[in-house]
Amino acid sequence: MRRLIAEYERLLRAAVLGLAGISGLSVLAMTAVTVADVFLRKTPWAFAGTYDLIKVLGAISISAALPYTTAVKGHVAIEFFYHKLGRTGRLILDVFLRVLSIGLLGLAVRECVRYGQMLHRTGQVSQTLQMPIFWLPYFFAGCLILMILVKFYHTTHPGKVLLKP
Known about the structure:
single chain, 165 residues, mainly alpha, 0% strand, 4 helices, elongated
């Protein structure tokens, strides 16, 4: 059983770090596209679709960074009332809020999948490049599923972070 749990933790860490890498690469790509657009705008080699690319890369970058932020417990927390509770009260509140967030993230996953299906069914594309965008909500749903797994890890391992920042 310990070997299975250790393998789960290893795979979870690898997935979180992989998505963090994708997030970083998409930020670099956004920078490159913006710089190229600025320099090529006055030349005959200017390309259309910069706005579309920046929107898609921004969505990828934000959604791929969320599991890492959750894994290092980097989200903003209101701790004024939290520290007024005793150790048991903090543990109960922490578990309750994590279970609640797992449920809400599950609902968000469902809605992302529904939205992706609707975009696919209607054939939605980006404005300039006419690139299909139905896959973006699916990607976001995958990132949310990873967040659920990280929240589950934190719920079953109170006081322990999955990754050090």
